[in-house]
Amino acid sequence: MPLGTIQGQNLIRSILTTSTAQMMEAEAKRKELEASYRVSQSTADIFSIPEVMGNKSVQELRDKLGVLDEQREALLVQYTEEWPAIKKIDKQKAQVQVSLNKQARDVVRAIEGAYRGAVLRESGLKQSNAQARAGANSQSQSEMKLSIKDQELEMTKQLYNTAIQRRNELSTGGDVPNNITIATPARRADNVGPPRVRNILIALLLALGAGIGLAFLLDYLDDTLKSIEDVDRHLHLPTLALIPAPRSERRILPGRSPAVSTAAGTGNEGSALALIEEKRSPVAEAYRHLRTALLLSSAGQPPKTVLVTSSQPSEGKTTTAVNTAVMLAQTGVEVLIIDCDLRRPRIHSHFGLLNTRGVTNYLSGDSNVSSLIQQYDKLPNLKIMTSGPVPPNSAELLGSEEMRRLLVLLSEQFTHIIVDSPPAISFTDASILSTMVDGVMLVVHGGRSSRAVVRRAKQQLMDVGANIYGIVLNNIKLESSDYYYYSGYYSSYYANEDDDQTIATDADEADELVETAKSK
User: Fold this and answer.
1) Using alpha carbons only, how large is the chain's radius of gyration in Å?
2) I need a surface site. Which of 2, 53, 361, 383 has the fewest CB within 10 A?
3) 347 by DSSP, 3-state: which?
4) What class has domain 3-166?
């Protein structure tokens, strides 16, 4: 072991030994002072404490006090206590007694101070001893690691020397050792690494299988209504129309205005009336199909009062109600659309009208119906009755006899009445109104509305005796395999039409539908 290491070990041991001895001495001193401190705190007579009794100043004061007592006793033999000399001695005794008491208390405080100092000194020495022990332990570990490294170094030196000696022996011989033979000549490998093409093909097949499985799983877990087959299978109701989803990037047909785009029920304000100027769009044609199906939905005569509702909010019921009223008005008959959604009215915003007076005014006692009906300038035969001020008790107002009387009164003036109402699941307003109208159209957002929710809305309406004409499947993507052919054919039909040809008017079409319905 190196000399420096040995000297370092001796120094650490010397420091540890000195620190331990000092700590033990401090501990013993602390115990001794602690015993004196405990006695000084527990003894009632301060002068019985050994340190106080042994104090030199206390002894001198007590001796002086004894001398004064002797002098006083001697004077009392001849004089009384009122004698000036005796009073002087009493005064001196009082001063000495005060000094004696003060000195005794100082001795007790000195005992306490010495004890506190011993405690602090012992604590400091214990910390120093702990640090010395930690240093000794760390040095011992380092010495152990150094010893291991020394052994490894010595072993490496021996192996190195053996290798050098063996090399020298081989180099001096000059010949290849006879005990070395070539068993099999080495060959150059043509392909190195894993079979990449096979692995890529396997990964591709696995990814394809996983994708197909995931697609089937997502389709299985999807419980929304997306097609006519879904409506027939799960709701057992007829589908009145399929309204395509709006697409700003949809191909512009000849004669169409690029700025006009009809929303199919996403709830966009101000987009429901685009059909008035756009008559060749797939959405407009879909609403014509809806008009045809609605006029032929009841035997004997077309329905007069139709309620438009949905299972939940934001499914496009207001847009469907507006466009249905517009299509019926384009046939030339008198049509009225009533906003009975007294919780979130939107009809007035589509037509750009004020909502200061409307249904709630009549239900609140205003019998002048003509003053509550507003006209739309672009379609003179389309009338609008807005909701009016929003009341706090909409269900009670709509369920009143005045509401039924209002529908009967308006039925005598208009050929068709379209009633917009709140969602059937969220509020009871639609169920109340469904008992006052000829039938109900239930608007369903394709690809988003859950089957269970729509089924519950249907059951809720049927429980009150509502006549459900059918389902309007809204926001359907024409790019799907079921509807893409129809969309492409419709676009190409108008694209190949000559400029001088015109389509039949909506009025003629409506007359034919009415005559067909009456003939049934």
Assistant:
1) 55
2) 2
3) helix
4) mainly alpha
Domain boundaries, the chain: 3-166, 224-519
Identify the pLDDT of residue 320.
Answer: 93
Residues 6+ apart with CB under 8 A from 328: 291, 294, 335, 415, 416, 418, 510
User: Can you read off the two tokens belonging to residue 297?
Assistant: 């939905």
Residue 233 pLDDT greater than 70, yes or no:
yes
Give CB contacts under 8 A, 24+ apart, made by 455-463. 455/234, 455/235, 456/311, 456/425, 457/309, 457/310, 457/311, 457/312, 457/423, 457/424, 457/425, 458/235, 458/237, 460/424, 460/425, 460/431, 461/309, 461/424, 461/430, 461/431, 461/434, 463/431
User: If one looks up domain 224-519 in CATH, what number appears?
Assistant: 3.40.50.300
pLDDT at position 39? 76
| Farthest-apart Cα atoms in the chain, separation | 163
- Give tens-digit pLDDT for 182-201: 777 777 766 666 778 888 99
Task: Indicate the pLDDT class of residue 512, thresholds 50, 70 and 90.
Answer: low
Residue 285 has pLDDT above 50, yes or no: yes
Q: Write the DSSP string, 407-476.
A: HHHHHTT-SEEEEE---TTT-SHHHHHHTTSSEEEEEEETTTSBHHHHHHHHHHHHHTT--EEEEEEEEE
Average pLDDT, the chain: 80
Q: Residue 46: name the closest of 97, 101, 1, 5 by CA.
A: 101
